[in-house]
Amino acid sequence: MSNAQLTHLESLQAFLTARIAPARALGVTVAATDPVTISAPLEGNLNDKGTGFAGSLFSVAALAGWALITRWCAAADIDAEVALQSSKVRFLAPARGEFRAIAHELPDKQREKLARMLTRSGRGRAEVVVDVTCNEALVMSFTGAYAVTAIPREEMAPEEILPGE
Fold this sequence. Notes:
- The protein is an alpha+beta fold.
- It has a single domain, classed as Thiol Ester Dehydrase, Chain A (Roll).
- 32% of the residues lie in helices and 32% in strands.
- It has helices at 9-19, 21-26, 54-75, 108-121, and strands spanning 29-33, 36-40, 80-91, 99-103, 123-134, 137-150.
- A six-stranded antiparallel β-sheet has the order 1-2-4-5-6-3.
- A hairpin with a 2-residue loop joins strand 5 (123-134) and strand 6.
- The N and C termini lie close together (12 Å).
């Protein structure tokens, strides 16, 4: 599936469900694409205290950051591999219900720098800030550095290229 297919809520949800096994296990739902917002139910993500498991909160935040960068690449007509390289997390309060990871858009300077790096070397890096909330309260803050590698279309497998691309 090319990145171009990941610009819409339904296609992003389908991709996460079909291709990313932890997303299925977490029960994630793409709630919005602007800003990228991914939610997960408390049920199935509980810890021994009956609140949201920290690893689940982290995973949903990492997916939201990945989705933001992947959508940006799609909008810029760049087929790319996006991977979390490093992160910093602060757990601020327990999640006692459904939680949502909201990825903040990249600042203009960072988008411009990423575009230059991808054009020049086919590789770049972007830092994404994600807030995880529960009942409107901030329960976790996440900052992730994502490595981005452009894939020339001639190197893509035929099933990854849609007709007309």
